[in-house]
Design brief:
Mg(2+) binds at residues 241, 284, 310. Its main location: cytoplasm. This protein is α/β, with parallel strands linked by helices. The chain has helices spanning 62-76, 86-95, 105-123, 127-132, 172-192, 214-227, 264-277, 292-301, 317-326, 336-339, 342-354, 372-379, 393-408; strands at 2-11, 17-25, 30-34, 137-139, 141-148, 161-165, 237-241, 253-255, 260-262, 280-284, 306-309, 331-334, 358-362, 383-388, 411-413. The strands form four sheets. Strands 5-6-7-10-11-12-13-14 form an eight-stranded mixed β-barrel, surrounded by six helices. It has a three-stranded antiparallel beta sheet with strand order 1-2-3. Strands 4-15 form a two-stranded parallel ribbon. The longest helix has 21 residues, at 172-192. It binds 2-phosphoglycolic acid (PGA) and zinc ion (ZN).
Length: 422
Amino acid sequence: RVEQVVAWEALDSRARPTVACRVSLTDGSSARALVPSGASTGSYEAFELRDGDERYDGMGVRRAVEHVNTTLADAVRGLDTAEPDAVDRVLEELDGGHRFERLGGNAVLAVSVAASRAAAAAAGVPLACWLHGPGALPLPMPMVNIISGGAHAGRAIDVQDFLVIPVGAASFAQALEWCARVRDAARRLALAGGHAAAVLVADEGGLGVPLGGNGDALDLLTRAIDAAGLTPGTEVAVAIDVAANQLWTGAGYELAAEDRTLSAAELIDEIAGWVAHHAVVSVEDVLREDDWAGWAAATRRLAGVQVIGDDLFATDPSRLAEGVRRGAANAVLVKVNQNGTLRGARGVLQAAQRAGWATVVSARSGDTEDDWLADLAVGWNAGQIKVGSVHRSERCAKWNRLLELEATEDTVFSNPWREAPR
Ligand code: PGA
Ligand code: ZN
């Protein structure tokens, strides 16, 4: 049973305050959790409570911490963590509002994750096993950021993420090694092309190089896969996250680096061109979050491609249901802090899986050294995980946790791309 809950203010990878929390149980076990925070956030995400005072330029989370230490601690004390979801149900009821506007989604998530971890500790098993139950643990396919743009790289390029998916890898360890090899090849090629900024790292650890256009980034990525001794398409495929909310001006989608503003149909044409000319198998947030009809048309147009909704769904069950009903997207990005509780985020993931959709568990651009996301991806059988690049320790913490699980537990590398694409 929950005995004590203590929260404090910690820092995320952008030096912004975030909520950290420890949950202690009556049997003596305890666990800690730190929550992440996005930059290219959608409007429908759970509310992030910030102090808005002079500390940290208004980004302090002392009020959220205070909520954990008082209201939330009082509400969950005595609850039996061995009973799945007992804590999360109470947390969800407590707020009243459906996006945690009162208590703060950051306060709620810290307690939700720490309580689950404490339950796993009490049971003497890793969080991944506690969530998964008996049987071999399914390790996810990594989607790894190589070139960063948008809100994560001072708009070096318009598209936010150019990623690779090592679709031909036989194990998680091999998948990660291939991605690291491609990133290094891309860095060397960018340096050779005069982009000194390739030695720097963007918010998610990718190369924040001002390449000019999105097509140039795709060219560089394809050359890097080649230079790494891997075959584009069959061994290493390409994914992009357009993060189109960020391009939307109210009148169109602005590609600033190319000095062009596109309509929804023109942007989808542009993306279809990238898919046709490069080994792109997955696209994310191809349009803004409110254009349901545009999304449905884009999903039909991009048949055979994984079309992921991130800001579109904001890990919200009713938005996902709407997407499934309309055929808007065919995959969902699951970010637990968009939802607020593990139970809520898992519900969205499972609803997507029941609809036959692919699922990707994702970190945030402001993240921490905490590695619980890796255990969620495994325990929930997400199939895919997106954490950023293979640089910066808040990213590597998750990769290293997956390497640890592969080395120490009974696992199977679940590769959703083995039969599927191109
Ligand atoms: P965010 O970006 O964490 O800044 O929202 C991640 C993404 O868009 O996938
Ligand atoms: Zn995204």
